[in-house]
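Students often ask why we bother encoding 3D structure as a string. The short answer is that it lets us treat folding as translation between two languages. Here is a chain of 341 residues written in the first language.
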Amino acid sequence: MVALDHYTLDTWGRTPDFYPFLLALLLPAIFVATTRALGPGAAAATAAIFTAEHILILLALLGFGMRIPTFTPIPLLPALAIDLACAAFPVPRTSWLAAPFAGLAFAIVACAQEAAWMAWAVGRPWDPGRVAAAFPGVALTAIGSAVVGWTVGTLVASAATGRPTREALGSRARARATVVAMLALVTVGVAAAYRPSRVEPPAGVTALGLAPDTGFDYRDAVFWDALLPDGWRTPGAHHAYQEAIVDGRGVPLGPAWCARDRVALARELASTRVTLSVNGEPVDLARYPRTRRRMRDGSLCEWIGVTATTPRPGFQELSYTVERDALPPSTIVMRLRVKEP
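And here it is in the second language, the structure alphabet:
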């Protein structure tokens, strides 16, 4: 699940077609394999382990002062659906039917759970028409994933008990054909999941839709001291890399300056000048409001509230120049990669 990147940790960019597809591609294979290899209840136990891992990740992010999104719905219900589907076919002669039924059960429960979560917890309900249109593909993907899991679980269980694979799968020819089909399904699934974000040419200031914004979370800002290179205030050139997602909330681009308290901040700002250019085009920062935030370490920061409301997918180069008194300037060149959800 961690491999799903921002889909796991940030719900805002989830779409009703691709996100359920990713879940259907990954989870049924894991749940069915564990159930097939370890027995009833293994899928739910695996989901519980994931839940504990997810909570630890969120606690670690909180510990570092990072913003965390709404809690991702844990896959316990889809895992229970798979456990029940596998338990419905205990007879060895018909046990192979457990895989397609488990995949279908997973698709139904997972899509319903995610749609409800997006509507009630996130506040961005999916269009029912898009959910219905995507469901057949999600169901087929979940069934294929479950078949792969059933095959892997059978191979693992056979190896653990010393039983020849040809006996577990019926015959040598059938075992060979099953493994080949499994590898083909994996190849098709991985190829279908590869949907790289578009990369547009670097955008101009107008195309990015810069707008005043003082309500942003500073932990979403590109210019956040915790994410900048060490010693960025010292004269010279500094380079950094960050990523953002086209999620409808915009990307805060404004620079900031921090000091230990209000008095120190006012004194330092009086002799500090910060400029910003986007892909070589200067931004008139005087047009945008200023807003202050208290950091976790007690320092006080003043941001220039400017947000890109229409960020373009691809790479953007943000150049911040900080001039203080008679000192040589400090330049932070930020290479920002913007991804589509």
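Translate back mentally: Residues 148 and 182 are 5 Å apart (CA to CA). Keep this in mind for the problem set.
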